[in-house]
């Protein structure tokens, strides 16, 4: 399996090239690895980053952990699947690799002991969180699970239903002896990793988005963040490196990491245009299929963007960039100079959406053409 890496040469070169890159096409990686984009990337990154060696992780258990987690992602779900998890994992690696994030936040946690070991532990937590963050996702939103009285909503009392499930189910996998690659870690270290993974994944619930970003901007002194509508890049991107943020408390460090994690979760917004559009189409398909279920169940109101008869995600991307994406990436770019590349990439895609966003008929035609090109017509 993932242990011996018997992948095609193309998969190996994709992985190697992605190590120092902001992006990887995980849909292509899935094809090149016999549908194992997450486990192949996970094993590759843990090895190449020196984490396996540093903590003497058992490679067989690590591989089994990644394979079992990967199996828990449902291919029938068009967006929240293993390729998405691999995509977020790669984005997380790219930020860690290029930004010195772990070094920046490590002192604030005040764990004591060897700083470089602590930094490596932070990286383990970030990568594990990314790999498991949508484990066993059903392609349904928290609101739907709550409103349909899904067993998961009942189990978690309607609070962060998806995120609680992803975490609890993934940690149950980690507890299995054949999957527990962290069994050899000192208890305090294992607790730290677990605590961080929980915080990062719970922070990815979009219902807490504004509160996380606002709190982060307060912690940073509100000196930056936000983007001007129309996709202009905030001026901070042109400033020198002094516009950085060093957290003073564990709480601030955690907030910083949550914002990074949110950017990684929304990482498709920074991919090259064609790849980005493919992910938006996939999200739209997932939304429409939830809307179909809502109609079947006789919901009074069909959720926003989920009714096939009305506008979908493709029609509303420009607004999403202005209100959610650019302020989020702007906040991170102000605190972490390496993230300016991500902000610039997001702004470039926003400009493409602005071009499409013109006159209504032209916009409708442009969007129909995008859907058709990707084989994802609106009314199936």
CATH topology description of the largest domain = Catalytic domain of cyclic nucleotide phosphodiesterase 4b2b
- The share of residues in helices is 55-70%
The radius of gyration over CA amounts to 20 Å
Q: Please state roughly what percent of the residues sit in beta strands, choosing from under 5%, 5-15%, 15-25%, 25-35%, 35-45% or over 45%.
A: under 5%
What's the structural domain tally? 2
CATH superfamily of the largest domain: 3'5'-cyclic nucleotide phosphodiesterase, catalytic domain
**Which CATH class of the largest domain?**
Mainly Alpha
Number-wise, the strands total 0
Average pLDDT, rounded to a whole number, is: 92
Characterize the overall form. globular
Descriptive account of the structure:
Keywords: Hydrolase, Metal-binding. This is PDEase domain-containing protein. It comes from Zooxanthella nutricula. One of its GO terms (molecular function) is metal ion binding. Pfam families: PDEase_I. This protein is mostly helical and 380 residues long. It has two domains: 197 residues, 3'5'-cyclic nucleotide phosphodiesterase, catalytic domain (Catalytic domain of cyclic nucleotide phosphodiesterase 4b2b, Orthogonal Bundle), CATH 1.10.1300.10; 175 residues, 3'5'-cyclic nucleotide phosphodiesterase, catalytic domain (Catalytic domain of cyclic nucleotide phosphodiesterase 4b2b, Orthogonal Bundle), CATH 1.10.1300. It is 62% helix and 0% strand. It is globular. 47% of the residues are buried.
């Amino acid at each position: 399996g993932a242990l011996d890496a018997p992948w095609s040469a193309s998969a190996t070169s994709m992985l190697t090239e992605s190590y120092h890159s902001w992006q990887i096409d995980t849909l292509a990686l899935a094809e090149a690895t016999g549908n194992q984009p997450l486990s192949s990337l996970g094993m590759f990154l843990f090895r190449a980053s020196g984490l396996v060696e540093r903590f003497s992780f058992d490679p067989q258990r690590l591989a089994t952990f990644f394979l079992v987690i990967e199996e828990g992602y449902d291919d029938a779900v068009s967006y929240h699947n293993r390729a998405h998890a691999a995509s977020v994992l790669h984005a997380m690696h790219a930020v860690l690799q290029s930004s010195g994030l772990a070094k920046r936040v490590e002192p604030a946690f005040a764990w004591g002991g060897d700083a470089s070991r602590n930094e490596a532990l932070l990286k383990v937590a970030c990568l594990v969180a990314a790999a498991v963050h949508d484990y066993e996702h059903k392609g349904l939103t928290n609101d739907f699970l709550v409103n349909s009285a899904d067993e998961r909503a009942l189990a978690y009392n309607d609070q962060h239903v998806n995120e609680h499930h992803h975490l609890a189910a993934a940690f149950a996998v980690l507890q299995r002896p054949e999957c527990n690659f962290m069994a050899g870690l000192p208890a305090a270290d294992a607790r730290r990793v677990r605590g961080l993974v929980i915080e990062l994944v719970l922070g990815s619930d979009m219902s807490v988005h504004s509160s996380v970003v606002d709190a982060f901007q307060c912690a940073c002194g509100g000196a930056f963040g936000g983007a001007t509508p129309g996709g202009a890049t905030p001026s901070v991107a042109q400033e020198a490196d002094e516009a950085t943020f060093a957290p003073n408390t564990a709480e601030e460090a955690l907030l910083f990491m949550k914002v990074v994690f949110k950017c990684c979760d929304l990482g498709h917004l920074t991919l090259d245009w064609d790849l980005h559009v493919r992910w938006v189409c996939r999200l739209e398909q997932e939304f429409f299929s939830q809307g179909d279920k809502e109609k079947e169940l006789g919901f009074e109101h069909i959720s926003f963007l989920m009714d096939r008869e009305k506008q979908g995600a493709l029609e509303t991307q420009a607004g999403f960039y202005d209100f959610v994406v650019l302020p989020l990436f702007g906040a991170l770019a102000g605190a972490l100079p390496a993230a300016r590349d991500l902000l610039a990439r997001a702004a470039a895609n926003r400009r493409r959406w602005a071009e499409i966003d013109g006159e209504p008929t032209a916009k409708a035609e442009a969007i129909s053409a995008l859907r058709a090109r990707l084989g994802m017509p609106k009314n199936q």
